[in-house]
Amino acid sequence: MVLWVASRSDVFKKNMIRALFFALGILLIGSFLDPYNQSQLSVALIIFIAVLSITLLTGASGQISLGQGALMAVGGYASALLILNVNLNLWLAIPLALLVSALAGLLLGVTAARLSGPYLAGTTLVIALAIPSLANRFESVFAGEIGFSVDFGNPPHWLDNLIGEVGIEKWQLIVTIIFATIALFFALNILNTRTGRSWRALRDHDLAASLQGVNVGRSRIFIFMVTSAFAGMAGALYGLRGIVSPSVYAVSLSLSLLTAAILGGIRNISGAMIGSVIIVFLPDWIEAVTSRFSVPTRISDYLPALITGLLLVATVVLSPGGLSGSIHHKKHK
Amino acid sequence: MNLFLSAFFSGTARGAIYAIVALGLVLVWRGAGIINFAQMGQAMFTTYIASTLIISGKSYWLAFVIALIAGAMLGALIDLLVMRPLSRVHRAEALNSPAMKAAIPVIASLGILGLLQALAGMFWAGQERGFPAPVAIEGLIVAGRKMPFTAFDIFTIAIVALVLVLTSLFFRKTGTGLAMRATALNQEVAKLSGIRTTQVRVLSWIISGAASSLAGLLIAPSSILSPTSLDLILIIGFTAAVVGGLDSLPGAVLGGLIVGYVISFVNFYRSPEDIFLAILILLLIVLLVRPNGVMGSKQVRRV
């Protein structure tokens, strides 16, 4: 029971400090890693941004989406087109891509606001499949299966002068840390303010929420817009790793985002972080173990998928709150 | 005209298979209140079993029957090992909102799908293989003219029609079928009238598992078999189920046929690339205009 509600500027300041600590922490960890793990860490951060969209959508407001990968594709294609055709740099292209995917989220929200549960899940799954196929349909604009090749560009010279030679992987990590920190800051603010409380009210009982003055339809559409912006940001960064093409944003991407959100814990932001680290690094960890034994490749190829599937089912059955949820739960007992 | 007839027959045969997929989804939805996203994973797994038997020299029909039995067993296992324990979980009180209660089984079924695909990859090395049909899949030649349908199309339609007749007899004439209909209508009341609803639940999963196996066996000859090759069919089957009405068995058949024709005509008259877009548009139109589907009876969506 919350008896004392912090003033808004207090909350903002606190969240700002949290986000900055997060950024410094990741930067510190990143500086000890080799280039391969640095780029893996930036993938984990990108996935983290995308998982945040699920944490907000499903965890905070109770709407399940299997189509976040499609919204990532919207962000990825928007930023690639802006970078290649309009010659924008990524600091302008990504915010614009974010707006484009928020618009896509608005469209999605208008159609999906009336749906719930399995209906919403199925419809978003169809969307996850249909949107990337548009790239083949309008091949002249979206370059079909081949897609666009884009990258993070080169680090600016003043950065080289400031902290010495910055490799491609480190530059990629720095860019993703900046965007992940912004995403984290916004997510924290949404959850800890009036907006977040109204979302949770909607999740727990939409009729009761509407009696408290929450406009159910409009809020649902707004939630889709905001979370699509997160997905779009992640999608733009995900594409900048090299290629923007339909196969990069396959349905399996949407499903692994959901897996990450559930494994870590769909209730809170630390869960999103834990889940993304697990999903990205698990294949490497399994590889590290299996390389010591002589495991036939047909087993080791599918071991990560098997273990993720097992973990997902076990989490849902044994502790639906996920890893962070079960810790949280015990603490409160 | 010939193009039209080809599209029509191919749409009927495809639609018959989608009807079976939709039937499987609707059965579990009615019996357990869950959309089973793992369904085509089960179908893929049992089709691999059938394929392995056929490759090792067993007859098509033996493999056919074994695949159906395996599908039924897999369905029962999923209910007993995952879905039933899941419905008993009340531990995390924070996850008890209706929204999350609907979301959790969806996620569980996706986990099972991933698990089945990984297992199939391990057992059968993820190799793509063809799958035989009991009759020719080339155009049938009658009196020297090439017909716009194949012998396998006729085989498919005949088998599906047989299954549909048997299913509807089962639901109309037997006590168990009546119990299943009662449970679908109102679980509490069915329980109070002495129906063991947990048994009805398992039975729904068993029939649905066998139905999806059948769908897998009928689809595999006209595509390749790989751990993920049937994923798309699930989405098509889901659309068919929603078009017909998620809680209606005749609706599933009608929805399957409608989706079959839409896909077939888009495929023949436009290009295969437009199929997913067409499915999405069909799904959105139905959800916006008639959210309960063409034949869905009661309000299945809660506030």
What's the arrangement of secondary structure elements?
The complex is a heterodimer of chains A (333) and B (303).
Chain A: H1 8-32, H2 35-60, H3 68-85, H4 90-112, H5 117-137, H6 139-142, E1 148-149, H7 157-163, H8 168-191, H9 194-204, H10 206-211, H11 216-240, E2 243-244, H12 251-264, H13 269-290, H14 297-318, H15 322-332
Antiparallel strand pairs in A: 1-2
Chain B: H1 2-32, H2 39-55, H3 60-88, H4 98-123, E1 139-142, E2 145-150, H5 151-173, H6 175-185, H7 187-192, H8 197-219, H9 231-244, H10 249-269, H11 275-289
Antiparallel strand pairs in B: 1-2
Helix pairs in contact in B: 1-5, 1-8, 1-9, 1-10, 2-3, 2-4, 2-8, 3-4, 3-8, 5-6, 6-8, 9-10, 9-11, 10-11
Give a concise summary:
The complex is a heterodimer of chains A (333) and B (303). By secondary structure, chain A is mostly helical.
- Tell me how many strands of chain A there are: 2
Tally the helices of chain A.
Answer: 15
Number of helices of chain B: 11
Q: Which descriptor suits the 3D outline of chain A?
A: globular
Strands of chain B, total number: 2
Describe the fold and architecture:
The complex is a heterodimer of chains A (333) and B (303). Chain A has 333 residues and is mainly alpha-helical. Helices cover 78% and strands 1% of the residues of chain A. Chain A has 15 helices and 2 strands. Chain A has a two-stranded antiparallel sheet. The mean pLDDT of chain A is 85. The mean pLDDT of chain B is 85. In chain B, 71% of the residues lie in helices and 3% in strands. Chain B has 303 residues and is mainly alpha-helical.
